Automatic annotation (TrEMBL):
<feature type="compositionally biased region" description="Polar residues">
    <location>
        <begin position="219"/>
        <end position="230"/>
    </location>
</feature>
<dbReference type="InterPro" id="IPR047611">
    <property type="entry name" value="RepABC_RepC"/>
</dbReference>
<feature type="compositionally biased region" description="Basic and acidic residues">
    <location>
        <begin position="231"/>
        <end position="243"/>
    </location>
</feature>
<feature type="domain" description="Plasmid replication protein C C-terminal">
    <location>
        <begin position="270"/>
        <end position="367"/>
    </location>
</feature>
<feature type="region of interest" description="Disordered">
    <location>
        <begin position="219"/>
        <end position="252"/>
    </location>
</feature>
<dbReference type="Pfam" id="PF03428">
    <property type="entry name" value="RP-C"/>
</dbReference>
<dbReference type="Pfam" id="PF11800">
    <property type="entry name" value="RP-C_C"/>
</dbReference>
<feature type="domain" description="Plasmid replication protein C N-terminal">
    <location>
        <begin position="23"/>
        <end position="167"/>
    </location>
</feature>
<protein>
    <submittedName>
        <fullName>Replication initiator RepC</fullName>
    </submittedName>
</protein>
<dbReference type="InterPro" id="IPR021760">
    <property type="entry name" value="RepC_C"/>
</dbReference>
<dbReference type="InterPro" id="IPR005090">
    <property type="entry name" value="RepC_N"/>
</dbReference>
Amino acid sequence: MQDTSRHPVGRPLSACLTSQVGSHDKWALLRDLTIAAEDFGLGHRPLSVLKALLSFWPERELPGAPGGAIVFPSNRALSERLSGMPESTLRRHLAALTASGIVRRHDSANGKRFARRAGAEIGVAFGFDLSPLARAASALAQAVTEATLRRERIAVLRARLGMLRQRLLGTGAPEELLEAARLLLRRKCSEQVLTAIVSRLEAELPAETPAEIPALTVSSPAQLSASNSQNERHIQESDRSYSDSESTQQAEAVRLDTAGPAEKDAQLSLPMVAETCREYRAFFPDAPKGWHELVAISQRLAPMMGVEPPVLHEAQRIMGPERAAATLLCLLERHAHIRKPGAYLRRLTQMARQDSFSVFSMLATLSRRADPGNCQLTI
């Protein structure tokens, strides 16, 4: 039995599949133009006028043949479709569309817009030719790719700018530079401007101290030195215990000191990571409600730190998403003292593949470093 409760709406799929060569989906073209509007010198108001013009073309497919997509609405009809836009404003935006080359005027002798039919077909029409939009489909696709990459680079630069400004607060950096960074974060600016100020902020970072680097260097047991004064030895020692009993603390320390990396990381908990790693709060002030939120935070922080997606994905595959997220937050704590976080994370991933790396021990080192009463760590 045929279902008559639902009626087909819009153009059938078969008609779309048999569209003429050189035609393009008009709404897909408008979407691409919206993304790359800056490259064509268009704002959101001219795009609204273009959307109204496209709505007067009866087909979804827009042909690319010259003169093959002419619409001829009056200014009054366009104004009504644009929720009452004033005619003077409408003319200005139509001129902007014409100047961009997306729309071409096809005027009659007296400047009026109309069409003359010859039977059931339109013989001649005067108005706005939308076919240049269809012919610009390949240029639009390339512009969309470039605009997307540019926006991603700007987002990374803005995030890095905020991180560098936060890190330089209270370090004696020039107040004018920090104020300029604060103002740029509140306004829209070009990629060149952001790159320049990020470079200036990076030049103000404190010089790398060689004695600080081994604090996060996790070595295998065979490579550890015999001296308890070495920083690398502290990484493999036990983490602080959360028990109230001193005897329980000692027993736990001995147990973790003799345990392997996998057994130590089994003690890893979200509160421990959130309390030990605090630099990420400059970008995400709210405490993560679960491991999934912490993993999402680490994925957004990775490009800001200069960690490439393949390096992060490999770390997540070898360590697991939770351990990789905790490791990335630990690296962020020491970001000012690590030249290449991506290479650092790649090395830790190699050690994790050999089962010689413990995130728990790294967090323990950071905890002792943050504890002002700890006398075991030499700075």
